[in-house]
Amino acid sequence: MGAAPSQKSDExxxxxxxxxxxxxxxxxxxxxxxxxxxxxxAGIKVLESRAKASVGKVSADDxxxxxxxxxxxATVNGKTVELSQIFKALSEALFASKDKMVIITxxxxxxxxxxxxxxxxxxxxxxxxxxxxxxxAAAAAPTGAGGK
Length: 148
Prior knowledge:
Elements: H1 3-10, H2 19-39, E1 47-48, E2 64-68, E3 74-76, E4 79-81, H3 86-96, E5 101-106, H4 112-125, E6 129-134, H5 136-146
Parallel strand pairs: 1-6, 2-5, 5-6
Antiparallel strand pairs: 2-3, 3-4
């Protein structure tokens, strides 16, 4: 009779202890929940518009118009500006603007880096709204050539 309880204590433990697994899982869930808002990358919100849809609430004079050509020339409200000085020009133009909206018109051949650089400079200069426009002359050329 006395030998039976000692045999049970010598048997290997076959039960899995789930408590540490649950503890580690809950800690990982809490860490991921805390990090998730930081994982979302901040971007630039851009108002997308068509070339012919230029009807808006504000007149065009209240906006800051930036024009980029395919050869790297930039104009801010009709004045030619070097790309290295675009932040200063945008700051001055936005100071006089009521709506704080920047409209960037670019050719199809423009590099994305130039356009994004101007968007970033405009946002840092204090632009409240950004809009991208396609060059109306470049947009009309392919449809006219395709129709023949």
